[in-house]
From TrEMBL, chain A:
Pfam families: ACT (PF01842), SDH_beta (PF03315). This is L-serine deaminase. The lineage of its organism: Bacteria, Bacillati, Bacillota, Clostridia, Peptostreptococcales. The gene is sdaAB. Its cofactor is [4Fe-4S] cluster. Keywords: 4Fe-4S, Gluconeogenesis, Iron, Iron-sulfur, Lyase, Metal-binding. InterPro entries: ACT-like_dom_sf, ACT_dom, ASB_dom_sf, Fe-S_L-Ser, Fe-S_L-Ser_bsu, Ser_deHydtase_bsu.
From TrEMBL, chain B:
This is L-serine dehydratase. The keyword Electron transport does not apply. The gene is sdaAA. Its cofactor is [4Fe-4S] cluster. Signal peptide: none annotated. Keywords: 4Fe-4S, Gluconeogenesis, Iron, Iron-sulfur, Lyase, Metal-binding. It catalyses: L-serine = pyruvate + NH4(+). GO terms for molecular function: L-serine ammonia-lyase activity. The keyword Metal-binding applies. Pathway: Carbohydrate biosynthesis; gluconeogenesis. Its EC number is 4.3.1.17. Belongs to the iron-sulfur dependent L-serine dehydratase family. InterPro entries: Fe-S_L-Ser (IPR051318), Ser_deHydtase-like_asu (IPR005130), Ser_deHydtase_asu (IPR004642). Residues 15-276 form the Serine dehydratase-like alpha subunit domain.
Length: 223, 291
């Protein structure tokens, strides 16, 4: 049985009206922001199920854009996120979509950056502000954002995992959970590493700089 | 120091001669690795958010996203200025504050989900009213919030606090039970009396469906938050008088869960039944969702 904290019960502190449709949506948006970084040109939100049906009434749209701006679910600027995004020159579109056999509160976020890079992230809001990210760039993965999460895009060959975990050991970072995913053997792969300790951006750039088999690494800290 | 149900919580309270909040704090220290002071500090932040939500709901212009609600708590407050409240001053303040917080929530303002966003008015409505009317300190209210969280945690573990799973009884019923137990502790009642008050609250609204118009956390949620606050105060008064619940807390929680699971899908937050499926409810849904 999961152990609940006081603040799981009296909490989260959030912007209303709905922990699943507002707070959770904001965290999915923020996960996409953490992967994409600042330089965002355009974001398309594909809304599924209950998200598609009720997103206006629940402010799901504003919360998602708030997340894209890097806001936490408790940030009062969420209410004005559309204007704030426009001021930053970020274009955003909402489309109702059938994303298949997924949770009723699911959204796929497609981020286009100014340098042409495209990041796709799909996540579900599973209640109480909790989320599960289920897909990155078409690859099925899974993490919850409850821990600092490292997403390492790497080449699928021997020794790469050891190199990455050696860096974490060097910085005294304890790994709570770790999973490895790949498109197919020898192709691009992803490591999802959830840690007990906070990860600084410095560690992420060190991994990118020193391990040639890691073309890209992202830090998703959305606790 | 761990417990999973009401009986274990009471046993710990009695064995160590501790209040519910003290047991809950000790458990949280073990779980989180934070100190008691850090945990209290976090709860102080939550209390500040609750106070500011009550304040802005009662004093500022608040309008929900859909326009269905906003300003109702203020109206009740205004009537108090010129009329003797029908239900007494404490009750009147509690219900107006509970409604005001729900308005703030529906207007995309900042709240504490306690235990959910849909029931976020009940705990601040009752506890902040108690603080004002009985001249209590913030530290007392922080203890009461921790007590409330112990009750809510038992319900979360053994049943549910989600309307989609257990209907409104699970959301506003749990919030009322949490608030009632906390009020009893604030007034010096025993841990047994706290759980008795919580039991009575849930018993009182067993079976209540979740049927929000257009699926929004607005109507009938707002007045059900008022009722939750009133229910909490009623049951606290009963329990503090030495009247205990015939059915023990754990059995009430189990029953609430069983009843919740037998509520039809249409009446569990899907906006397919109940008030959402009335001619007026459907008309509003069309207007709001543009369908």
């Amino acid at each position: 049985m999961k152990e609940f904290s006081i603040f799981d019960v009296v909490g989260p502190n959030m912007i209303g009206p709905s922990s699943s449709h507002t707070a959770g949506a904001c965290r999915i948006g923020k996960a996409a922001y953490k992967m994409a970084g600042e330089d965002i040109k355009k974001v398309t939100f594909l809304l599924h199920g209950s998200f598609a049906k009720t997103y206006r009434g629940h402010g799901t749209d504003k919360a998602l854009v708030g997340g894209i701006l890097g806001f936490d679910p408790v940030d009062e600027r969420i209410k004005y996120s559309f204007d704030l995004a426009r001021e930053k020159g970020i274009e955003f579109i909402f489309q109702e979509a059938d994303l298949g056999e997924v949770h009723s509160n699911t959204v796929k976020v497609i981020v286009e950056k100014n340098d042409g890079e495209i990041i796709e992230l799909m996540g579900s809001s599973i209640g109480g502000g909790n989320i599960v990210v289920t897909e990155i760039n078409g690859l099925e993965i899974e993490f919850t954002g409850e821990y600092d999460t490292l997403i390492i895009s790497h080449v699928d060959k021997p020794g790469v995992i050891a190199k990455v975990t050696a860096v974490l050991a060097l910085y005294d970072i304890n790994i709570a959970f770790m999973r490895v995913y790949r498109y197919s053997k020898g192709q691009n792969a992803f490591m999802i590493i959830e840690t007990d300790n906070e990860i600084s951006p410095e560690i992420v750039s060190y991994i990118k700089k020193t391990i040639p088999e890691v073309p890209q690494a992202y830090l998703v800290n959305i606790k | 120091m761990n417990f999973t149900n009401g009986k274990e919580l009471l046993d710990l309270c009695n064995k160590h001669n501790k209040r519910i909040y003290e047991v809950m704090l000790a458990k949280e220290v073990e779980l989180s690795g934070l100190s008691e002071e850090e945990i209290r500090g976090k709860m102080r932040e939550s209390l500040e958010i609750m106070k500011s939500a009550v304040n802005s709901g009662l004093n500022e212009e608040v309008k929900s996203l859909s326009g269905l609600i906003g300003g109702e708590g203020k109206k009740i407050k205004k009537r108090r200025d010129t009329h003797k409240p029908v239900c007494g001053l404490v009750m009147s303040k509690a219900i107006s504050s509970a409604m005001a917080v729900l308005e703030v929530n529906a207007a995309m303002g900042r709240i504490v989900a306690a235990p959910t966003a849909g029931s976020c008015g009940i705990i601040p409505g009752t506890l902040i009213t108690m603080q004002e009317e009985f001249g209590l300190e913030d530290e007392d209210i922080i203890n009461a919030l921790i007590t409330a969280s112990a009750i809510g945690m038992i319900i979360t573990k053994n049943a549910t606090v989600a309307g989609a799973e257990g209907g409104c009884q699970a959301e506003t019923g749990s919030a009322a039970g949490m608030a009632a137990g906390a009020v009893v502790e604030l007034m010096g009642g025993t841990p047994e009396a706290s759980l008795s008050a919580a039991s009575m609250c849930i018993k009182n609204i067993l079976g209540l469906v979740c049927d929000p118009i257009a699926g929004l956390v607005e109507v009938p949620c707002q007045t059900r938050n008022a009722m939750g606050a009133a229910n909490a105060l009623i049951c606290a008064e009963i329990a503090l008088s030495g009247v205990s619940s015939i059915i023990p807390f754990d059995e009430v929680v189990d029953t609430m869960y069983k009843v919740g699971r037998s509520i039809p899908f249409e009446l569990r937050e899907t906006a397919l039944g109940g008030l959402a499926d009335t001619p007026t409810g459907r008309k509003i849904q069309k207007q709001v969702l543009g369908e």
